[in-house]
Write a structure and sequence with these properties.
- Helices cover 51% and strands 11% of the residues.
- The chain is mainly α.
- The strands form 2 sheets. A 3-stranded antiparallel sheet has the order 4-1-5.
- A hairpin with a 2-residue loop joins strand 2 and strand 3.
- Helix 2 runs parallel beside helix 4.
- The mean pLDDT is 89.
């Protein structure tokens, strides 16, 4: 089963972000955990979904994550370009968080346009690496792949291709085995 990008985005909305509320409210007790108390001007951690909702209602300012900074993203982009392997990312949902924050709270993010470009550069570099890895994997007829430091969205972009390729390679290898028969490889 392949997850739709909107489903991955839904999972990303559970990530905690810092907000500065402009209202007072005691602790809020939710199934996922307690939030607050909320006091004007005092930072508090909340899930992204709540931060976006409060921002939309002009009830808070969202504090961008520390990694959502031009200098840090330039370092991340340069490191990703230098390394052959996938480098660790600051959040398993870095792409989704960036998209949501820039679409709904760009006024709270300094240099939003530069950040959008840098995150897109990181994404493009990682997807290009993923395609090269997949090509190498298929051409060398490997049996397994190491997918360290990939995000759920990145894995989702290549999942169908990988699974179909593995199935084809399995069928090809099995047919090369002595005594194999076509009848044993039926697609259901």
């Amino acid at each position: 089963m392949v997850m739709d990008p909107s489903e991955v985005e839904f999972l990303a909305e559970k990530e905690m972000v810092k907000i500065i509320p402009n209202f007072s409210l005691g602790k809020v007790f939710l199934i996922g955990g307690d939030l607050g108390p909320f006091n004007p001007g005092l930072p508090v951690d909340v899930p992204l979904w709540l931060a976006l909702n409060l921002k939309q209602r002009q009830r808070c300012t969202i504090v961008p994550p520390a990694w959502l900074d031009v200098e840090k993203l330039e370092e991340m982009r340069d490191l990703e370009r230098r390394e052959d392997a996938f480098t660790p990312v600051p959040s398993p949902y870095y792409m989704e968080l960036t998209k949501l924050l820039l679409n709904h709270a760009s006024d709270n993010i300094p240099k939003a346009d530069e950040i959008r470009t840098l995150v897109k550069d990181v994404w493009d570099t990682r997807v290009a690496k993923l395609r090269l890895s997949a090509d190498s994997f298929i051409s060398q007829m490997e049996a397994h792949a190491k997918l360290d430091n990939l995000t759920l969205m990145e894995i989702n972009t290549i999942r169908t291709f990988f699974l179909d390729s593995l199935n084809c390679m399995y069928k090809l290898r099995s047919n090369l085995q002595p005594g194999s028969s076509q009848a044993q490889f039926k697609d259901y």
